[in-house]
C-alpha cells in the first residue's frame, strides 16, 4: 500500500506538470489580451504596454511558464490579474462551497443509486425494475441547467420551500441544508442514474454466482444472502463509478453553481477564463486535477479493504 501511495504521488507530480503546460499554452493561444481586459476600453496603448510589462506578459511564453512553475514549486500560485488577490486565498475561500456541494450531491447519488440498483436486481423485470431503469435513463439525459431551473421554479418560486440560490450558511445548520438540497439533487441526479445501472448489473451477476446459490441451498435467509454475501462483492465495480463521479463532481459543479448562484471554484474558474486571468485559471485547474488523483487513490485503498484478495504489490 505504501508503494502504491508513493507511485501515485509521482504520477500526480507528472500529471500536474503536464496539465499546467497544456492549460498555460491553451490560455496563451486563445484570442484576446489579458492586458487589454485589465486596462479596459479606455486604456491607451502605452497603458496596455505598461500592464504587460508589469505582469511579465511581454516575455517569451516558455519563460513565462517556467517562471510560473518556479513559483508553484515554492507554494506560490501567483496573484490574480483581475483582482490582485492571492490565487491560493481566492481558491480556498470558495473551495468549501464546492466541496460541500460535491459531498451532498454524492450522498444523494449513492443513496438513490445503490438502493434503486439493488432493489431492481432483486426484483428483476418487475414494475419497479422497469420504472427505475426508465428514470435512470432520464436522469442521465436531462441537462443540469434545465433540471436546476425546473427545481427552482417548482420548489422555490411556486412552493417556497427552499431558497432560490446562494450557499452562505454553514452546511450543518437548517438553513445551510435547505440551500444545499436543490443543488445537490440537480448535480447528483446523473451520478445516481449511473450508479443505479452499475449496481443493478453487478448485483445481477453476483446473485447468480455459485456461492450465492449454495448459501440459499443451506437455508440462509434472503436478507443475509443479499446484504452480507452478495452486496460486498457487487460493490467493487460500483465503488469505481462512485469514485470517478465524485472526482468529476468536484470539477464539474460549474453549471450548477451558475444556476444556483453559488460562489464556488466552478464560478471562479468561469470568471477567470472570461477575464483571461492566467494565474487563477491555472490554480483552479491544478486543484481539480490533484483532487481527482487523490480520490482515485482513496478508491484503490477502499478496494483492498472490501476485498483483501486485491493486492497492489
Describe the model.
It is a single chain. By secondary structure, this protein is mostly helical. It folds into two domains: 2-87, no CATH class; 95-306, MetI-like fold. The protein contains 13 helices and no strands. Helix 6 (127-141) crosses helix 8 (174-207). The longest helix is centred in the middle third of the chain and has 36 residues, at 87-122. The model has no long low-confidence stretch (mean pLDDT 80).
The number of distinct helices, counting runs of at least 4 residues, comes to 13
In whole angstroms, how far apart are the ends?
7 Å
Number of strands: 0
Rg over alpha carbons: 24 Å
The helix fraction, in percent, is over 70%
Note the main attributes of this structure:
single chain, MetI-like fold, 13 helices, 313 residues, mainly alpha
Write the layout of secondary structure elements.
Layout: H1 2-29, H2 34-39, H3 45-55, H4 61-73, H5 87-122, H6 127-141, H7 144-158, H8 174-207, H9 210-217, H10 222-251, H11 254-259, H12 265-274, H13 278-306
Helix pairs in contact: 1-13, 5-6, 5-8, 5-10, 5-13, 6-8, 7-8, 8-10, 10-13, 12-13
Produce a short descriptive summary.
With 313 residues, the protein is mainly alpha-helical. It contains 13 helices and no strands.
